Amino acid sequence: MGSSTKLVGNNNNYDYSFKILLIGDSGVGKSSILLSFISNSLHHDLSPTIGVDFKMKLLSVGGKILKLTIWDTAGQERFGTVISSYYRGAHGIILVYDVTRRETFTNLLNIWAKEVELYSSNPECIKILVGNKVDKDKDRAVTRDEGIALAQEHKCLFLECSAKTRENVQQCFKDLVLKILEVPSLLENGSSVVKRQAMKQKQEYQSPRGGRCCLH
Ligand SMILES: Nc1nc2c(ncn2[C@@H]2O[C@H](COP(=O)(O)OP(=O)(O)OP(=O)(O)O)[C@@H](O)[C@H]2O)c(=O)[nH]1
Ligand SMILES: [Mg+2]
């Protein structure tokens, strides 16, 4: 699809609403990627996420206005019984690892991919494997080719990015939504259902810092 993607302002008129999840080990940069995408600015030394947080952003892609609700979760916590509702109804999942920490890459296979398989209610949900922190190239512990191979094995899209320099951060979300737009079943449930769920889950997940919602 050769459409252009641009960021659009603060309004509630949209054609589709998509739920996107960020998952991966603690410290890989999930919150940094999200903040870099949402606010177009650099954020240093974020604290680990507590519980679950989500943010919204409107995008214009190929003449359609898309509302993305992006869920960010703590890599170091498991949420027991609420975990399935975190995954429920997701249109896209961003699986993040840190290219300088090999265990974050192997954990995607051992822990996170299994969790997606178990809890993701949507069989056609689009996944993208993202290797973050490419700005630290001299500390690299996972090659680009290894990332590509894992993505192929799990039928995921693939990108390497840096939340610090913002290289490829917009592209991760753009590639994901362009692919979601190609799947008719994802478009069918891409509107009111997700909006209702977001409100419900916001209440379920109220945490000391969680449940914040901002629309940029
Ligand atoms: N050099 C570099 N540092 C990064 C990058 N992305 C994140 N960091 C740093 O890595 C640390 C962890 O980033 P977070 O965004 O909090 O990681 P997280 O995946 O949200 O971690 P949890 O919330 O604990 O699951 C922070 O100190 C960030 O500043 C990057 O692309 N390059
Ligand atoms: Mg975080």
TrEMBL record:
GO biological process, one term: protein transport
InterPro entries according to UniProt: P-loop_NTPase, Rab, Small_GTP-bd, Small_GTPase
Keywords associated with the record: Cell membrane, GTP-binding, Lipoprotein, Membrane, Nucleotide-binding, Prenylation, Protein transport, Transport
Taxonomy, superkingdom: Eukaryota
GO molecular function, one term: GTP binding
Entry-linked Pfam families: Ras
Alphabetized PROSITE patterns for the sequence: RAB, RAS, RHO
Subcellular location(s) per record: Cell membrane
A Gene Ontology term for the protein's cellular component: plasma membrane
Membrane topology: Lipid-anchor
Function of the protein: Intracellular vesicle trafficking and protein transport.
Family of the protein in this entry: Belongs to the small GTPase superfamily. Rab family.
Protein name: Ras-related protein RABC2a
Organism this protein belongs to: Morus notabilis
